[in-house]
């Protein structure tokens, strides 16, 4: 049965409109880096470091905090996938940063939980710009 807020694929309208759900489904192209049963990792379209990869959950969750409550094992999968990406990209020893942005002050733009993996060069400081 199709109910309010779902489409023919049984997705909620927010998931149907979600860029990262479309990337996971292969409907929007991306450059794959790593994948497993629960996560998918691909290169950020506007890299902020020599290595800038996004790890997303295959399942739609609004953000990391929601995921931690709804499916804590999946949050652990995200971090494990981020570490695997760092190993694959050869930056495990040199160091890397794992980032979850939340809300507009953090510059959050896509509302499907995603982990940034940044590295491959000396990274800047946290916090205020400049
Ligand atoms: P946020 O700012 O929400 O934490 O991160 C969203 C990230 O997604 C940004 O770093 C942005 O560059 C990246 N992004 C936005 N649209 C696309 C896209 O269509 N393809 C890829 N590969 N990355 C995207
Ligand atoms: Zn989504």
Topology diagram in text:
Layout: H1 13-16, H2 19-25, E1 32-35, E2 39-43, E3 51-57, H3 64-70, H4 72-88, E4 96-99, E5 114-119
Antiparallel strand pairs: 1-2, 2-3, 3-5, 4-5
Helix pairs in contact: 3-4
The chain binds guanosine-5'-monophosphate and zinc ion.
Plain-language structure description:
The protein is globular, with a radius of gyration of 15 Å. 27% of the residues lie in helices and 20% in strands. The longest helix is centred in the middle third of the chain and has 17 residues. The mean pLDDT is 91. With 130 residues, it is an alpha+beta fold. Strands 1-2-3-5-4 form a five-stranded antiparallel sheet, with helices on one face. It has a domain of 89 residues: 2-Layer Sandwich (HIT family, subunit A), CATH 3.30.428.10. It has four helices and five strands. Zinc ion binds next to helix 2.
How much is the average pLDDT?
Answer: 91
Shape: globular
User: CATH H level of the domain at 31-119: which superfamily?
Assistant: HIT-like
End-to-end Cα distance, whole Å, is 53 Å
Tell me the strand order in the biggest sheet: 1-2-3-5-4
The CATH architecture of the domain at 31-119 would be 2-Layer Sandwich
Total beta strand runs: 5
Strand content: 15-25%
Structural class determined from secondary elements: alpha+beta
Order of helices and strands: HHEEEHHEE
